[in-house]
């Protein structure tokens, strides 16, 4: 079987093979350009897939940071681990703290006698006394709770009675206000009686001298100042400044005579502690516990101090309500900044007693400038 192969036209002398090949290449150019574009798109697709994979890995790592509360965690170290060890939870105040180890703990166990029943046999009590929380020192408050949670600078004070006799009182190892009173009253060489009154210390001269009763910090110490005793005496009595008041760092667990604040224990973002209705009719939910993102991951730990409460109220109401410590330093004041004719209402959210424990539950009508003045919580 034969075939035909043409190279040059027998009559025209034209190279038809080359001409046909060029025409075919010209006709195939759109196809070649499309193939090149396809290769480019495939390369872009590969790059986008790689970027997506990297972003997914970053999201996974970031979620782990968020879930484990890495940025909110804290650690504590001690210069003498054999004497004292410490741990820090999320939200712990950053700083350096000094501790004086007075004595080592020893184990102790007390066992009551047996009871045949759970609700009939008397426990031996003759009376029970219940009293509300009050900002006073005669409940043997820890010194760490004084001065708005700033505590007391431990050290020595120099007491000089009206007979001009002086004595140095070492308060470097005291822990409570009663320890301070006992240390002063047990000091020999000076005739002064210390007592507690309301939110301050009182020193009374018992020497009968004609001089002036004075209290000063020893050289290098500021203890008298932090105890509020660096004031002038009147008629032989030093009435100290109030040192038991709320501050930004006052912890919630020290409020209400150490009972603390009852936060909503339910998990998830829909677990507020306060419902605040402003005079414009808007109801604001304030959450003092864990805060969550849209994926229900914890983004912030529960508030632990008064400043945390103030910040949550101010931010979660969008500035419609401003919270602050009252002038007396024993409670909170809430101010409605909106315009309207409704009542300004603060109530506990379901499952929480925070409003009651913070003393800010209230319902105020009338002048929009009228605030809710919280009750004493110290």
Describe the structure.
The chain has 5 helices and 15 strands. The protein is an alpha+beta fold. The strands form 5 sheets. A 4-stranded antiparallel beta sheet has the order 8-7-13-14. The chain has a 3-stranded antiparallel beta sheet with strand order 2-1-5. The termini are far apart. The mean pLDDT is 85.
Characteristic terms for this protein:
378 residues; four-stranded antiparallel beta sheet; three-stranded antiparallel beta sheet; elongated; alpha+beta
List the SSEs and their pairings.
Elements: H1 16-67, E1 156-160, E2 166-170, H2 177-185, E3 192-197, E4 200-205, E5 214-217, H3 223-226, E6 237-239, E7 274-277, E8 283-286, E9 291-292, E10 298-300, H4 306-316, E11 321-325, E12 332-336, E13 344-348, H5 354-357, E14 362-364, E15 372-373
Antiparallel strand pairs: 1-2, 1-5, 3-4, 4-6, 7-8, 7-13, 9-10, 11-12, 12-15, 13-14
Task: Give a short summary of the structure.
The chain is an alpha+beta fold and about 375 residues long. Helix content is about 20%, strand content about 15%. The strands form 5 sheets. It has a 4-stranded antiparallel β-sheet. Strands 2-1-5 form a 3-stranded antiparallel β-sheet. It has a 3-stranded antiparallel β-sheet with strand order 3-4-6, covered by helices on one side.
Question: What's the Cα radius of gyration?
Answer: 38 Å
Quickly count the helices.
Answer: 5
Mean pLDDT comes to 85
By DSSP, the count of extended strands is: 15
Poorly predicted runs: none
Distance between the termini: 115 Å
Portion of residues in helices? 10-25%
Biggest pleated-sheet summary: 4 strands, antiparallel
Shape: elongated
What's the arrangement of strands in the largest beta sheet?
8-7-13-14
What is the N-to-C succession of helices and strands? HEEHEEEHEEEEEHEEEHEE
Percentage beta strand: 15-25%
- What class would the helix/strand composition place it in? alpha+beta
């Amino acid at each position: 079987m034969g075939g035909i192969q043409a190279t040059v036209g027998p009559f025209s002398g034209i190279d038809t093979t080359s001409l046909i090949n060029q025409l075919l290449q010209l006709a195939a150019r759109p196809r070649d350009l499309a193939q090149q574009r396809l290769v480019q798109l495939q390369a872009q697709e590969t790059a986008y897939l790689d970027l997506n994979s990297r972003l997914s890995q970053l999201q996974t790592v970031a979620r782990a940071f968020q879930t484990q509360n890495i940025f909110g965690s804290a650690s504590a170290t001690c210069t003498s681990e054999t004497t004292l060890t410490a741990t820090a939870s999320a939200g712990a105040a950053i700083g350096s703290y000094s501790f004086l180890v007075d004595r080592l703990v020893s184990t102790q166990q007390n066992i009551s006698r047996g009871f045949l029943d759970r609700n009939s046999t008397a426990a031996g009590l003759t009376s029970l006394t219940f009293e509300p929380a009050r900002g006073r020192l005669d409940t043997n408050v820890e010194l760490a709770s004084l001065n708005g949670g700033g505590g007391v600078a431990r050290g020595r004070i120099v007491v000089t009675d009206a007979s001009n006799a002086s004595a140095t009182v070492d308060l470097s190892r005291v822990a409570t206000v009663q320890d301070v009173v006992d240390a002063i009253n047990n000091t020999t060489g000076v005739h002064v009686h210390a007592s507690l009154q309301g939110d301050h210390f009182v020193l009374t001269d018992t020497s009968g001298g004609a001089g002036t009763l004075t209290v000063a910090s020893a050289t290098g110490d500021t203890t008298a100042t932090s105890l509020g005793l660096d004031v002038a005496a009147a008629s032989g009595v030093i009435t100290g400044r109030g040192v038991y008041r709320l501050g930004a760092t006052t912890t919630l667990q020290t409020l209400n005579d150490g009972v603390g604040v009852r936060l909503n224990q339910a998990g998830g973002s829909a677990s507020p502690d306060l419902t605040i209705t402003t005079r414009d009719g808007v109801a604001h939910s304030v959450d003092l516990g864990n805060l969550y993102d849209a994926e229900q991951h914890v983004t912030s730990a529960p508030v632990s101090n008064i400043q945390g409460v103030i910040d949550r109220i101010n931010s979660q109401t969008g500035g419609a309500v401003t919270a602050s410590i009252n002038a007396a330093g024993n409670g909170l004041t809430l101010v409605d900044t909106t315009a309207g004719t409704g009542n300004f209402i603060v109530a506990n959210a379901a499952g929480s007693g925070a409003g009651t424990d913070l003393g800010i539950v209230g319902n105020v009508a009338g002048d929009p400038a009228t605030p809710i003045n919280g009750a004493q919580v110290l």
